[in-house]
Amino acid sequence: MEVSKGEGALCENESFYEEVFSDLKEEEKALPAFISSGNLEIDRKLEGGVPTGSLCLLEGGNDSGKSIFLQQMMWGALNQDKRVLALTTEKTSKELLNQMESLKHGISDYFIIGRAKIFEINAGYIEEKTQLSESLLHVMLECIKRCEEELIIIDSLTIFAVNSSENAVLNFFTECVKLCDNGKTILISVHGYAFPKAVLYRLRSVCSTCLELRIEQVGAQWIKTMEIQKLRGARKTSGNLLSFDVNSEFGLKIVPVSKVKA
């Protein structure tokens, strides 16, 4: 049976569109998943959130907002039905839960049912027995390897960096990359001053996402800023700075740049 030119063209068009839509579906499958912070403005800057399967380095000085940002990520992940493990040298479990509750990001219910786990690491003990620091790094790695949680938060690694060799710290990050390749998402906060510059550069190169938090003076006002230095899969490099404040009613609150400059 002979096919008319019109019917032939129609078949060609259908074949073309099927191919286009097939390619689009494949692209959709390839799009990375994200762990949301639960804050629309932060997610917008991060182009969706922290990419799953990434090792994220969070640098900052004292009171720059590192812990608050990690708590925000913990809250966002739990509300995404993720399981979270927090390893903390900064606070006790009770202090962490109480602070999140005070910022309207309470996770006590998740903690009770086991979706959120908090392990305390006594920083004072490490300072007294510095020879145990590298052994504890290995213990932390084993803990992360065996846990079922998708998101791992370490706040902070500074005490280990101060009391361990450079090779031990670099090896810890390298092993974390392998765990991320197997599906874990790991966020690690550090004080940048704890590392020699050469080591810090190497850590940044190992991590797929790097965020730096600072406290800056703008006029008579002190503000916290977060610079996205590196973000896996990001489509753009501009507009990578945001300013924020910690509000007792809303938690981490974005401050518009225009307001900051004013």
Keywords:
nine-stranded mixed β-sheet, two-stranded antiparallel sheet, single chain, 262 residues, 11 helices, alpha/beta, P-loop_NTPase, 11 strands, Rossmann fold
Description:
The chain is of the alpha/beta class and 262 residues long. The chain has one domain (33-254): P-loop containing nucleotide triphosphate hydrolases (Rossmann fold, 3-Layer(aba) Sandwich), CATH 3.40.50.300. The chain is built from eleven helices and eleven strands. Strands 5-4-6-7-3-8-9-10-11 form a nine-stranded mixed beta sheet, sandwiched between helices. Helix 7 (133-146) runs parallel beside helix 9 and helix 9 runs parallel beside helix 10 (197-206). The protein is globular, with a radius of gyration of 22 Å. Mean pLDDT is 85; it is low at 24-31.
Q: What is the structure about, briefly put?
A:
This protein is an alpha/beta fold and 262 residues long. 45% of the residues lie in helices and 24% in strands.
The CATH architecture term is: 3-Layer(aba) Sandwich
What is the tally of beta strands? 11
Round the Cα radius of gyration to an integer and report it.
Answer: 22 Å
How would you state the average pLDDT, rounded? Answer: 85
The CATH topology comes to Rossmann fold
Structural class label: alpha/beta
Strand order of the largest sheet: 5-4-6-7-3-8-9-10-11
The number of helical segments is 11
Order of secondary-structure elements? HEHEEHEHHEHHEHHEHEEEEH
Provide the domain count. 1
CATH superfamily: P-loop containing nucleotide triphosphate hydrolases
Question: Which regions contain 5 or more consecutive residues with pLDDT less than 50?
Answer: 24-31
Question: Main β-sheet, in a few words?
Answer: 9 strands, mixed
CATH class: Alpha Beta
Overall, the morphology is globular
Measured as a percent range, the helix fraction is 40-55%
Domain KaiC-like: 41-256
Keywords: ATP-binding, Cell projection, Cilium, Flagellum, Nucleotide-binding
InterPro entries: KaiC-like_dom, P-loop_NTPase
Pfam families: ATPase
